[in-house]
Amino acid sequence: xxxxxxxxxxxxxxxxxxxxxxxxxxxxxxxxxxxxxxxxxxxxxxxxxxxxxxxxxxxxxxxxxxxxxxxxxxxxxxxxxxxxxxxxxxxxxxxxxxxxxxxxxxxxxxxxxxxxxxxxxxxxxxxxxxxxxxxxxxxxxxxxxxxxxxxxxxxxxxxxxxxxxxxxxxxxxxxxxxxxxxxxxxxxxxxxxxxxxxxxxxxxxxxxxxxxxxxxxxxxxxxxxxxxxxxxxxxxxxxxxxxxxxxxxxxxxxxxxxxxxxxxxxxxxxxxxxxxxxxxxxxxxxxxxxxxxxxxxxxxxxxxxxxxxxxxxxxxxxxxxxxxxxxxxxxxxxxxxxxxxxxxxxxxxxxxxxxxxxxx
Length: 360
Ligand code: NAD
Ligand code: ZN
What we know:
Layout: E1 11-14, H1 22-26, E2 37-42, H2 49-52, E3 62-66, H3 74-87, E4 94-99, H4 101-113, E5 125-126, E6 136-140, E7 154-156, E8 161-165, E9 173-176, H5 186-204, H6 211-229, H7 235-254, H8 260-272, H9 276-284, H10 292-304, H11 319-330, H12 333-340, H13 344-347, H14 350-359
Parallel strand pairs: 1-9, 2-3, 2-4, 4-6, 5-8, 6-9
Antiparallel strand pairs: 7-8
Helix pairs in contact: 3-4, 5-6, 5-7, 5-9, 6-7, 8-9, 8-11, 11-14
The structure holds nicotinamide-adenine-dinucleotide and zinc ion (ZN).
C-alpha cells in the first residue's frame, strides 16, 4: 500500500475585508516591471466599484473579465493563454482568479498552461502536468465548490469533461473574504452551497472514507445543516460559515472521492451544458436509493428555501444522447468505485443509469 502525498494551498488569509490586503500579498511576488499580474474577474463584477476599485493594479497589470455563464472549456483556456503569450514579453508574475468555481478553475488552468506546452486537453486526467505553474491566487466570491482548495481544475474538452488533477494545480495563495459573497442570488447560493453538501454526503458514504476525509467531511456536513436547515445565524455568520464549509468539503474529497451524483452530473454537464451546482441538485434529488438519509435532508433544505428544480430535462433526448451521457458517467471509474465498491460494475449498468437519467 502506498499513500498519496498531497500538496495543499500554501497560504490562506481569512476574514471579512481581507480582500483589502491583496496589494500587500501580491507585491513581494512581482518578478519585475514587465511581468504583470493578470486578474481574471467574473463579469458579474464589471462596473461594480465596491470590488473592482480594490483590485491593486500597477505597471502592466491587467483585468480580464470572464463570463461564468458557461463552464470553462479547454479551447477557451488555450486561447486565453495564447493571448497572454502574444501580448507580453515575459511570463506573468501571477494569475489571480476572482469569482466562483468557474473563474477559479480558469485561473488555475491558465497558470498551468503558461508553463506547459501543447493544448490543455492533453492534460485532462491525473498527474500529466510536467512543469510547475505560474504563481496563482484564488479569491472565491461564492461558496461551495471547494475549487479554492482542490487539486483539480475541471474543464470540458472535445472528448470529455475531466479535471487537470496535478500537484501544480492547487493555489499558492487563497483569500477567503466572506463579504465578497454578500450579493450572490438566492437560487445560486443554494445550488453552489449544495455542491458542498453533496461533497460531504458522497465522501462520508464512500468506500474510500478514512479518518482524514471523515474529520473534514463531518465538519462541513454539520456547518451545512446549520446554514441550510436552522434559523439561528445572521447573514454574515452564514456567509462566513459557508465559506469554511466549502473549504472543509473540498479537503474531505481531496483524500477520498465524490460519487454517484457527480458522475451523473458530469454527463448532464457534458451533453446539455447543465452547470455543476444545479446539475448536482437535479441528480441528487433522485438518489434516495444510494444516499437515503442525505437525500431526505436535501429535500427538506429545498423545501425550506423554496427552490424549484427544473424537471423533464431529459424528456426529449434520443437514444444516442442518453448513450453519450452514460458514457461520460461510466468513464469516471474512481467515483463509482468510491460510491459502490470494487464490484460496482455488477450493479451499475447502462440500464441503471438510463433509468435514472429518464427521471430527471
Ligand atoms: P460559477 O462560478 O459558475 O458562478 C455561478 C453564478 O454566480 C455566475 O452567474 C456568477 O456570475 C455568479 N456569481 C459568483 N459570485 C457572485 C457574487 N459574489 N455576486 C453575484 N453573483 C455571483 O459557480 P460555482 O458553482 O462556484 O462554480 C461552478 C464551477 O466550478 C463549475 O465549472 C465546476 O466544474 C467547477 N467546480 C470545480 C471544482 C474544483 O475542485 N476545481 C469543484 C467543484 C466545481
Ligand atoms: Zn462538486
